[in-house]
Amino acid sequence: MSCFAQSKVLKYNTDFVIFEGCDSIINKEKCFKEKSSRYILEQLTDSLQTKLIRNSKKDTITMSIRFFFDEEGNITKESHFYSSVDSISKHFEQLLIKFPRVKPMRDEFDRGVASFVNSFYGFTLDTITNKLLPINDFEPTEVPYAFLDKLPVYKGCEDTNDNELLSKCINSSLKRHLQENFRADLLANGLDLPLGINSIFLFFTIDKTGKIIPTSVRAPHPILKMEGLRLIKAIPDVDSPGYLDGKAVSVPFFLPLKFLIE
Fold first, then answer.
1. How many whole angstroms separate alpha carbon 62 and alpha carbon 211?
2. How many secondary structure helices (H) and strands (E) does the chain include?
3. Last residue of some domain: 140, 155, 188?
4. In total, how many domains does the chain have?
């Protein structure tokens, strides 16, 4: 977990936001993680926890949150949430809006400083009680794209270290790969697809070594699902993986491929 000011300040009187009840705790980061994890669980109704457990494909549910706080410690609308269970994301929008006010970071003149905190949570599934149990000292095995300090470097994107430019480069390169390699002739084989725009959704991971690992494909026909898997396997490995806090991490990716049936 990490906390960053949104403006350049040389010195801080308080270099991490303070969750209620953490004032006297030496490790403010760990206290924030524990208190916010407890808050998240408290906000999850029994029915929502049951839904999480039912829809999860793994024994562990992960949540990644980037909290943005203003100079007074109020959470802002720029905050965003990712979960290993996609269907619950909209429920957490309200959770973030209601997130408790914290004491903000403060500069050397004791003025509040706007900042953001990256926090990663893991919960195990208790299928007997239909409850989630927090994983202490959780370290994510995958880090969402938006949380990275340094994005993966795709072939042809080596000339910049700027994340915004890297993002544009890797996305345009991957889209070009799909356009150049998709077998459009498959659409002429009487797949009985509905008229209009259809989509194939490709899910894969760029692992710590830069290798492309297929995760899943969603498509309106089995033949197109096989084609989606072939496209993922044909993506060249990246020259450099994603990094967070100086460590190489695995990064989940999602690519849509849209086509028109007339």
1. 22
2. 5, 13
3. 140
4. 2
Nearest to 163 by CA among 251, 89, 96: 251
Q: What is the mean pLDDT of residues 174-186?
A: 88
Beta bridge partners of 203: 216, 254
**Distances, alpha carbon 239 to alpha carbons 13, 153, 223, in Å:** 40, 6, 31
Predicted confidence at residue 100, as pLDDT, reads 94
Cβ atoms of 134 and 37 closer than 8 Å: yes
Same domain, 124 and 205: no
Domain co-membership, 115 together with 26: yes
Average pLDDT over residues 241-252: 90
Tokens representing 147 are 């949380």
Whether 153 is covered by a domain: the verdict is no
Q: What is the mean pLDDT of residues 27-49?
A: 87
Residues 130 and 181 in one domain: no
Compute the residue count for the chain: 262
Residues 52 and 133 in one domain: yes
Instruction: Give the model's pLDDT for residue 216.
Output: 92
Q: Which phi and psi angles does 140 have, rounded to 5°?
A: -70, 145
Distances 120 to 63, 117, 123, 235, 248 between C-alpha atoms, Å: 6, 10, 10, 29, 16
pLDDT tens sequence across 150-178? 999 988 888 877 888 888 998 898 889 88
Cα–Cα distance between 237 and 251 in angstroms, integer?
Answer: 13
